[in-house]
TrEMBL record:
Family of the protein in this entry: Belongs to the MIP/aquaporin (TC 1.A.8) family.
Keywords, sorted A to Z: Cell membrane, Membrane, Transmembrane, Transmembrane helix, Transport
Classification via InterPro entries: Aquaporin-like (IPR023271), Aquaporin_transptr (IPR034294), MIP (IPR000425), MIP_CS (IPR022357)
Transmembrane stretches, start-end: 12-28, 34-53, 80-102, 131-154, 166-187, 207-225
Annotated PROSITE patterns: MIP, PROKAR_LIPOPROTEIN
Protein name: Aquaporin Z
Primary subcellular site in the record, as a coarse category: membrane
The organism of origin for this protein: Flavobacterium chuncheonense
Keyword field contains Cell membrane: yes
PANTHER family recorded: AQUAPORIN TRANSPORTER, MIP17260P
Topology term for the membrane: Multi-pass membrane protein
UniProt signal peptide: none
Compartment(s) of residence: Cell membrane
Length: 233
């Protein structure tokens, strides 16, 4: 139960901090943090929670990461489903908190016809810069694949584990710097699902891509590290 609570709170913090920065702070004229600030916010959520609760649960905070670690031989299949449920629950609760806060702003409404509504992910007309489904799929696949390689490498028994959280947090920051214009950045199915549930419409109908592409990318990343990169002795 402690592990599942750690994953719940870690994923909650990721969605609340990352999506919250996009919703509250990114677009303020002259003072807004912009794309770079949102990217850094996502990285900081993972970095801080990796040190806060990573020693309890391993600090996945992402269904794709859990699948990739399982594929890489670092995580038990017996815990996989329960971790994913805890992560999705944490993400949905965070989205609910964000929605409640935004309701306190005069004139707030979620426009489900706009790309990036409520920090949702999307492709085609719902991509921030109009990228196609194929482009979105490749971006999410490749970025999640490399994210898993970074995670597996940084947490390898031969690596300096004290800095694993820094490497993983900065990797997620870089991922967002690359892909916010493409898909609004997922690489995390729980994060995508939580926002899409509150938006509905097309973003919810497109959420399948933000489960399939990251999970496939994580599987390939786990296999690459386990079979080609991992030091055996």
């Amino acid at each position: 139960m402690r592990k599942l609570l750690a994953e719940f709170f870690g994923t909650y913090w990721l969605v609340f901090g990352g999506c919250g920065s996009a919703l509250f702070a990114a677009g303020i004229p002259e003072l807004g943090i912009g794309f770079a600030g949102v990217a850094l916010a996502f990285g900081l959520t993972v970095l801080t929670m990796a040190y806060a609760v990573g020693h309890i649960s391993g600090g996945h905070f992402n269904p794709a990461v859990s699948v990739g670690l399982w594929m890489g031989g670092r995580f038990s299949s017996n815990e996989l489903v329960s971790y994913i449920i805890a992560q999705c629950a944490g993400a949905i609760f965070a989205a609910g908190t964000l929605y409640f806060i935004l309701m306190g702003k005069e004139g707030f409404i979620i426009d489900a016809t706009q790309a990036g509504a409520f920090a949702s992910n999307g492709f085609d007309a719902f991509s921030p810069q109009g990228y196609s489904m194929a482009s979105a799929f490749v971006a999410e696949f490749v970025l999640t694949m490399f994210f898993l390689i970074v995670i597996l490498g940084a947490t390898d028994k031969f690596a300096n584990g004290k800095f694993a959280g820094v490497a993983i947090g900065l990797a997620l920051t870089l991922i967002h710097l690359i892909s916010i214009p493409i898909t609004n950045t997922s690489v995390n199915p729980a994060r995508s699902l939580s926002q899409a549930l509150f938006v509905g419409g097309t973003p919810l109908s497109q959420v399948w891509l933000f489960w399939v592409a990251p999970i496939l990318g994580a599987i390939v990343g786990g296999l690459i590290y386990k079979n080609l990169l991992e030091q055996r002795k």
